[in-house]
């Protein structure tokens, strides 16, 4: 039966006298939804990451092919594949970091909230598994709508008595990556030199780039500010429309997910001063969750930074963002408490 299939490094394809290689030093990372549009390039990039010693690929379809393919890459991480709910326990046991890109993506005309009905249930099931089998793992949640799935995950963990707000992070890195790219275009500089804090959440007007806090310090005309803010907020829709029914951002998302996961792993390994934006349990506003810059360390989120000084345009944007965010958070919480 296919769901009883557990795969490890294409073992049946290796000669019987093949010397088994143990995992080297590094972190154990699971990707849930590993066979998807994001999952596949994300799995490939994580297999290339020297901080990763063991990589568990889990999905409800096609994990065998992705695992066999990726396991041939001559990098250090040991890859194992897991297919279907019965193997979730083995996929999760012992993991330091769990990355979740499982769930359906948008099609043209859809908002991220339109994904709620399907993805809420998927995230709930996967987080119940995490609570049971690796309650100490750091969780990077990618599945949309992030503004609701993070509260769902928090409620699941709270219910099971395992909730540690420092270990649950909604991934908003793609908004930062897009902001850096678009701002660099306007400033005509290398995007690697640019850092744009993006706060709030991960959908439409809840995505709030703080152009007044861009590094290197820069000023923008009102027109540039409006163009950049709108483009950053609609970056996802730009890709959804260009793909015309074939899904949403996958390649740039995999890149952003790896950038974020690597920051989490560097924090876990004790690197000082690892700071990124993420959607987390937070008290910087009156809302229970909010994306801001956070410092990552051995326990996940070690410090949450305040919003910093906002200009008038940003203050107006913040009010709009909070209104929509409050409803999305409430929707997630209600899904579990109902
Ligand atoms: P996809 O449909 O290509 O892949 C999703 C994968 O999840 C599939 O392989 C599917 O089999 C798997 N899956 C479904 N139910 C599952 C379950 N119960 N357990 C494990 N795996 C399961 O979708 P894509 O493009 O990879 O997007 C995934 C999610 O990421 C979507 O919800 C999308 O909206 C979201 N996303 C989030 C972004 C962010 O910035 N946070 C950016 C882009 C997408």
Short description, anyone?
40% of the residues lie in helices and 18% in strands. It has 338 residues and is an alpha/beta fold. α4 (116-133) runs parallel beside α5 and α5 crosses α10.
What is the topology?
Blueprint: E1 6-8, E2 27-32, H1 39-47, E3 52-59, H2 63-71, E4 78-83, H3 88-92, E5 97-100, H4 116-133, E6 138-141, H5 146-159, E7 168-170, H6 173-187, E8 198-200, E9 207-209, H7 222-233, H8 235-243, H9 251-268, E10 274-281, E11 289-297, E12 300-304, H10 312-337
Parallel strand pairs: 2-3, 2-5, 3-4, 5-6, 6-7
Antiparallel strand pairs: 1-4, 8-9, 10-11, 11-12
Helix pairs in contact: 1-9, 4-5, 5-10, 6-7
This protein binds 1,4-dihydronicotinamide adenine dinucleotide.
The site of 1,4-dihydronicotinamide adenine dinucleotide has 33 residues, from helix 4.
Explain what this protein looks like in three dimensions.
It is a single chain. The chain is α/β, with parallel strands linked by helices. It is built from 10 helices and 12 strands. The chain has helices spanning 39-47, 63-71, 88-92, 116-133, 146-159, 173-187, 222-233, 235-243, 251-268, 312-337, and strands at 6-8, 27-32, 52-59, 78-83, 97-100, 138-141, 168-170, 198-200, 207-209, 274-281, 289-297, 300-304. The strands form 3 sheets. Strands 1-4-3-2-5-6-7 form a 7-stranded mixed sheet, with helices on both faces. The protein has a 3-stranded antiparallel sheet with strand order 10-11-12. A two-stranded antiparallel sheet has the order 8-9. A hairpin with a 7-residue loop joins strand 10 (274-281) and strand 11 (289-297). Helix 1 (39-47) packs across helix 9 (251-268), helix 5 crosses helix 10 (312-337) and helix 6 (173-187) runs antiparallel to helix 7. The radius of gyration is 20 Å and the shape is globular. 1,4-dihydronicotinamide adenine dinucleotide is lined by residues 32-33, 35-39, 59-61, 101-106, 115, 119, 122, 125-126, 142-144, 146, 171, 174, 202, 247-250, 253.
């Amino acid at each position: 039966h296919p769901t009883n299939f557990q795969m490890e490094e294409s073992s049946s394809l290796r000669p019987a006298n093949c010397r088994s290689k143990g995992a080297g030093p590094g972190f154990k990372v699971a990707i849930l939804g590993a066979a998807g549009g994001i999952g596949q390039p994300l799995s490939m990039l994580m297999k290339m990451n020297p901080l990763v010693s063991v990589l568990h690929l889990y999905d409800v379809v096609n994990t065998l092919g992705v695992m066999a393919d990726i396991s041939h890459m001559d990098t250090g991480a040991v890859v194992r594949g897991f297919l279907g709910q019965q193997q979730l326990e083995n996929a999760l046991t012992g993991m330091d970091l769990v990355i979740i890109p499982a769930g359906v993506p948008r099609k043209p005309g859809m908002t991220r909230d339109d994904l709620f009905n399907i993805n809420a249930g998927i995230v709930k099931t996967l987080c119940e598994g995490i609570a049971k089998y690796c309650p100490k793992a750091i969780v990077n949640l990618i599945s949309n709508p992030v503004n609701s799935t993070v509260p769902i995950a928090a409620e699941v963990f709270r219910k099971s008595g395992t909730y540690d707000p420092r270990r649950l992070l909604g991934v908003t890195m793609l908004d930062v990556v897009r902001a850096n790219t678009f701002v660099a275009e306007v400033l005509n500089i290398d995007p690697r030199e640019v850092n744009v804090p993006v706060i709030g959440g991960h959908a439409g007007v809840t995505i709030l780039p703080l152009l007044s806090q861009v590094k290197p310090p820069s000023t923008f005309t009102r027109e540039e500010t409006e163009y950049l803010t709108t483009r950053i907020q609609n970056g996802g829709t730009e890709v959804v429309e260009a793909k015309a029914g074939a899904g949403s951002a996958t390649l740039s998302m995999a890149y952003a997910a790896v950038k974020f996961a690597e920051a989490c792993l560097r924090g876990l390994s004790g690197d000082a001063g690892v700071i990124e934006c993420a959607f987390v349990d937070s008290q910087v506003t009156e809302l229970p969750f909010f994306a801001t810059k956070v410092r990552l360390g051995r326990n996940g989120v070690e410090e949450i930074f305040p919003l910093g000084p906002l200009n008038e345009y940003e203050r107006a944007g913040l009010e709009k963002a909070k209104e929509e965010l409050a409803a999305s958070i409430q929707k997630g919480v209600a899904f579990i408490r109902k």
